[in-house]
Amino acid sequence: MPRKKSHSRLGKTFEYEVSRSLKAFKNRHPNTFFWHRLSDTMSYIQVPNVVIPKQPGDFIALYRGMFYLIECKSMHVDRFDMDHLLPHQREGLAQVVKAGGRGVLLFSFRKKRPVACYAVHYFDYKVLEDALRGERKSIPRDALERIGIKLDRIPRVGWDLSKVFIPRTRIKE
Prior knowledge:
Blueprint: H1 7-28, E1 33-37, E2 59-63, E3 66-75, E4 79-81, H2 87-98, E5 102-109, E6 116-121, H3 122-132, E7 138-140, H4 141-147, E8 149-150, E9 153-154, E10 158-159, H5 162-165
Parallel strand pairs: 3-5
Antiparallel strand pairs: 1-2, 2-3, 4-7, 5-6, 6-8, 9-10
């Protein structure tokens, strides 16, 4: 009987796609764009009595003077469980926005073909989450589609991130 994949492993495919997408954006904007993948806590060898710092997101980026913290979330259902955005991730995204940067959540819905990806500004997500928190434990896909921007698929690369970084195509603020 095949082993069921953990939630954290399911998201690695999406993170890899985003990594390739950031590399492709860098190739198109070599002098104005920087990005870096933040190491997962799980990437470290588990050593007794060693405390590994939790990362505030999956990626950091800098484009034309604007700092971005990007957190990737992948779902194989048509909803996002609010508890899957961890407290240290919420805090990191909020601090970046308060400091003048942009906190961006990328949601990938992989249940139905074609796979879809939406970029959502952190505070837009937070307003939606606060409105639903008392009555639900998850956010339906259609609600995230309404507040986010659909990203176009780039074959054999991942996603076109221009709408995240370039002002005329940027996600709603």
